[in-house]
Amino acid sequence: MSQKQASAHTVASYRDTFRLLIEYVHERLKKEPANIRIADLNTDFVMSFLNHLEEKRGVSARSRNQRLGAIRSFFRYVAFKAPEHSGLVQQILAIPSKRHDHTLVDFLTREEIEAILEKPDRNTWLGRRDHALILLAVQTGMRVSELTGLCRRDLAIEKAAHVRCLGKGRKDRCIPLTKTTTAVLRSWSKEVPASPETPFFPNSQGGHANLAMKEGILKMMTPVEANRRRFRADDALLSFLRGL
Predict the structure, then answer these.
(1) Range list of H helices, the chain
(2) Which CATH entry fits the domain spanning 110-241: 1.10.443.10, 2.130.10.10, 3.20.20.120, 3.30.470.10?
(3) Phi, psi (deg, nearest 5) at residue 94
(4) Residue 16 to residue 84: CA distance in whole angstroms
């Protein structure tokens, strides 16, 4: 992955894909990770895994295609390292991506924004973390993977408050923060270790977000994640953040 200069988000996406796939192999084939063979991952099994993601885990067609992309990348590697499986490789690479509709995204109202921000219980450490994270998402439109990947060094919350992130397509962004958001983040920062490398929104063990944490945040942020591209132009949101 380092030779391909893949971003941290791509690495995390591939990691999560194979974590889910290995769990599915263990559930269906009763095999430990060390005993999995390339032949076990035939076309029917991979299709079954993709259907499982949609039907049991409720992922979208877009997320399904993302998982399929990671599996295809792995089998392209297999084609060079284990050419005896070339027939299987061609079958996996021929699995089509699923078509999906591109729906128009509407704005959130001020009432919807307030309701989402009220979800976390701010009497608890996790609730204060989630409230700060969601408020930052509301203002900046950052993706969950970008938010959970932030470290302390990525935020300036004193003078000229802003957040920097390397987003999709390896785009480096620097986003100014409002006074309301800055105040909440400054308060939250007191509950996070001071090291620049420390995750700003850690999991309960203090490390980077795992898949379960990301899924929990996505559920709380609905419909925030679906509407992230339209937040910054919403007059109701701007008024809310200014405290008007």
Answers:
(1) 8-29, 43-55, 61-81, 86-93, 110-117, 125-140, 144-148, 179-189, 211-221, 235-241
(2) 1.10.443.10
(3) -85, -5
(4) 27
Angle of helix 86-93 relative to helix 61-81, nearest 10 degrees, comes to 160
Question: Across-strand partners of 151?
Answer: 199
> Per-block average pLDDT, block size 10, for the chain (244 residues)?
65 90 95 94 96 91 92 95 94 90 67 84 92 89 84 89 80 88 94 90 83 71 50 45 45
Q: How far apart are CA 134 and CA 213, in angstroms?
A: 13
Q: Rounded distance, CA 45 to CA 218, Å?
A: 28
Assigned token pair, 146: 């970008």
Q: Which of 121, 192, 183 is nearest to 158 (CA)?
A: 183
Domain ranges of the chain: 8-93, 110-241
Report the alpha-carbon distance of residue 138 to residue 228 in Å, rounded: 7
Instruction: Return the number of other C-beta atoms located less than 10 Å from residue 10's C-beta.
Output: 19
Instruction: Please provide residue 135's backbone torsions phi and psi, each rounded to the nearest 5 degrees.
Output: -60, -40
Q: Give the C-alpha distances (Å, rounded to integers) separating 82 from 90, 95, 191, 240.
A: 13, 20, 49, 57
> How far is CA 75 from each of CA 34, 187, 229, rounded to the nearest angstrom?
18, 47, 34
How is residue 176 written in tokens? 């100014």
Long-range residue pairs from 58-61, CB within 8 A, at least 24 positions apart, any chain: 60/100, 61/98, 61/99, 61/100
- In CATH, the architecture of 8-93 is Orthogonal Bundle (1.10)
